[in-house]
Amino acid sequence: MKFCCNCAAPVAKRVPPGDSLPRWVCDQCGEIHYQNPRLVVGTVPEFEGKLLLCRRAIEPRYGYWTLPAGFMENDETTAQAALRETLEEAGARVEIDAPFSMISVPHVNQVHLFYRARVLGLEFKPGEESLEVALWEEERIPWQEIAFRTVGLTLKRWFADRGRGAFGFHAEDLQ
Amino acid sequence: MKFCCNCAAPVAKRVPPGDSLPRWVCDQCGEIHYQNPRLVVGTVPEFEGKLLLCRRAIEPRYGYWTLPAGFMENDETTAQAALRETLEEAGARVEIDAPFSMISVPHVNQVHLFYRARVLGLEFKPGEESLEVALWEEERIPWQEIAFRTVGLTLKRWFADRGRGAFGFHAEDLQ
User: Fold this and answer.
1) What is the pLDDT of residues A34-68, one digit of tens each?
2) Between A5, A71, A98, which is nearest B5 by CB?
3) Owning domain of residue A157
4) ω into residue A68 within 30 of 0, thus cis?
């Protein structure tokens, strides 16, 4: 951030009165430009015991496998974001179940949130951001080719919970 | 948003190539300025069966009672944000327990997240954004003077869960 998006004057980073953290502040119009973490929301889509993964057609981690997920948009709920991302990236219609994992990733200022979901049919197909979409049995999950640590952790927790016959909600942090 | 914070040229709202939603786009430097929901994180701080509430010293809802909560900052985890806000607004040291409620508030582009927490001592005191801080029994909660619907809903769910002897995780939406 170099300029004020409100008046185009240069901004400076300093602690505003009454605040405790440095912010981008505009000395011309007085606007304080806060920057906050973003939510990445997706699903763990299940179909007859197998999980639906997408192979990424974009950077970062081009060619690696991931769960359908993406940045939550304004004007939507977390569940709507999860449904939308699953449709966009995997072409899959799903029924959203409970939230399953919430993982803070402070070094990139993100919180990743995954819902359990049930795939409603086999007519899924890769969206613009995916090379391919496929259902994977637990024994065949490509663990060495998983795109992100939050996805690997979520898959691991999902199979563990299924193994013990009860799905929980997992709140964790990546450091 | 009127100007590009990267190069100070005027921005226009339109759908970028490959995207599906209108964004603020800079035609001079090419920057796309995404806007996303923000996380408001706090606690339900409990001490010997009573809950700690703060009376707001700031707008909106000046003078109304709320749970300690605020915007999550960059470089922190959700649990760290909950701990920090509880210390800032209520001067209270707490031990963070599990996430308790997560409520989407799409009309203000926010997601509110509350953790259960245990107050570690009675030396709490109002921070700069609070007029007073007090412990409330269930029978005396000032339901007519609660600042936000997400706080009222979270308190209601907390007392209901306590009543049945088991705390869950509540994911909901306000429309």
Assistant:
1) 999 999 999 999 999 999 999 999 999 999 999 99
2) A5
3) 38-173
4) no
Q: Side chain identity at A133, as an amino acid letter?
A: V
Measured between CA atoms, how close is B141 to chain A, in angstroms? 29
A138 CB contacts (<8 Å, ≥6 apart)?
A159
What is the model's pTM?
0.96
The pLDDT-based confidence of B20 (bands split at 50, 70, 90) is: confident
Contact B71 A171 (CB under 8 A): no
* Cβ within 8 Å of B, A 63-122: 71-80, 88, 98-99, 102, 104, 106-107, 109, 111
Read off the CATH number of the domain in which B103 is found. Answer: 3.90.79.10
What is the reported pLDDT for A173? 98
The encoded tokens of residue A170 equal 């997992």
Q: What is the ipTM of this complex?
A: 0.95
Residues A140 and A93 in one domain: yes
B18/B55 same-domain check: no
How many Å apart are CA B116 and CA B107, to the nearest integer? 26
Cβ atoms of residues A53 and A67 within 8 Å: yes
- Residues in chain A predicted with pLDDT less than 70, given as ranges, are none
Q: Is there a single domain that holds both residue A148 and residue A80?
A: yes
**How far apart are the CA of B99 and the nearest CA of chain A, in angstroms?**
7
